């Protein structure tokens, strides 16, 4: 394979392995120490499109980096080809870091990659990352659970296999449960309509968090009935997360996860819009 032959081949006899590593939501300081060490020790890194530039900058310049990224509407490598690439690189003796945005096991197809590696008899280890929901919650001051108003939280994909997601609406009706939609922008009108038709109040607060934890983070506050209009007007871009529930009322755009003085650099001077 051409990609393989372009890479430096490790010493003969070394057994390859793959580390599925969570890169977190963007802010490089949210990377774990284990992730950083794995990146530093890799002989090749395979990245997806959600890995931020700040994190990419931590990959040693001498380490080859393969971009397998998929942007919405633009196709990167097919999942099967990525699986095969990881297997081939490990078979060639590489210490491969497969770097994925957020956590590899939350809407990251990390499970599929792990199974493909296991089937091929390749050693695979997983390093968790801060998932977008946790990162965005911290950087906006929205607690995902809160004694007074949210006893549980659900992480939901807003994108089905063939378009609009087929959701168990009944499981989403509890007003004391926070809902976090990943990949929810495209189908936000269907999502809000489905929630309202199935018992969620039209005035339920919603936060759209664009580029969470990154420079350029923007937070748009709206309600279920105003969601589609707010998205049409403000045109948030990917990556954006939707948080639905009473906890959104606690949003103060807090900067608690950042050391004092870093607010401007991290883009917390975010725009907020309330209502429709
Ligand atoms: N494995 C990732 C999620 C991959 S699905 C994780 O654990 O975070 C991709 C979706 O994640 C995006 O469409 C968006 O909804 C969300 N997302 C990822 N990074 C984000 C960020 N920095 N800000 C807002 N949403 C983000």
Automatic annotation (TrEMBL):
It comes from the Bacteria. GO terms for biological process: cobalamin biosynthetic process; methylation; siroheme biosynthetic process. Its EC number is 2.1.1.107. Pathway: Cofactor biosynthesis; adenosylcobalamin biosynthesis; precorrin-2 from uroporphyrinogen III: step 1/1; Porphyrin-containing compound metabolism; siroheme biosynthesis; precorrin-2 from uroporphyrinogen III: step 1/1. Keywords: Cobalamin biosynthesis, Lyase, Methyltransferase, Multifunctional enzyme, Oxidoreductase, Phosphoprotein, Porphyrin biosynthesis, S-adenosyl-L-methionine, Transferase. Residues 18-227 form the Tetrapyrrole methylase domain. Belongs to the precorrin methyltransferase family. This is uroporphyrinogen-III C-methyltransferase.
């Amino acid at each position: 394979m051409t990609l393989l032959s372009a890479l430096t081949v490790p010493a003969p006899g070394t057994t390859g392995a793959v580390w599925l590593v969570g890169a977190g939501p963007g802010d490089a300081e949210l990377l774990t120490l284990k992730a950083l060490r794995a990146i530093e020790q890799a002989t090749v890194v395979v990245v997806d499109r959600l890995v931020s530039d700040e994190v990419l900058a931590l990959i040693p310049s001498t380490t080859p980096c393969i971009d397998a990224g998929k942007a919405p509407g633009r196709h990167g490598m097919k999942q099967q080809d990525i699986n095969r690439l990881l297997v081939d690189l490990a078979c060639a003796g590489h210490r491969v870091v497969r770097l994925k945005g957020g956590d590899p096991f939350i809407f990251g197809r990390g499970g599929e990659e792990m199974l493909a590696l296991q089937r091929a008899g390749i050693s695979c280890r997983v390093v968790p990352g801060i998932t977008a929901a946790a990162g965005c919650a911290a950087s906006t001051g929205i607690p995902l659970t809160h004694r007074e108003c949210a006893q549980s939280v659900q992480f939901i994909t807003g994108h089905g296999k063939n378009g609009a997601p087929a959701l168990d609406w009944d499981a989403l009706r509890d007003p004391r449960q926070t809902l976090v939609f990943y990949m929810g922008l495209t189908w936000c009108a269907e999502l809000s309509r489905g929630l309202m038709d199935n018992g969620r109040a039209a005035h339920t607060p919603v936060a759209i968090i664009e580029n969470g934890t990154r420079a350029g983070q923007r937070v748009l506050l709206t309600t279920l009935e105003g969601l589609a209009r707010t998205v049409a007007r403000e045109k948030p871009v990917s990556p954006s997360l939707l948080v639905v529930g009473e906890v959104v009322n606690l949003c103060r755009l807090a900067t608690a996860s950042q050391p004092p003085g870093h607010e401007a650099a991290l883009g917390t001077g975010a725009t907020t819009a309330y209502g429709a």
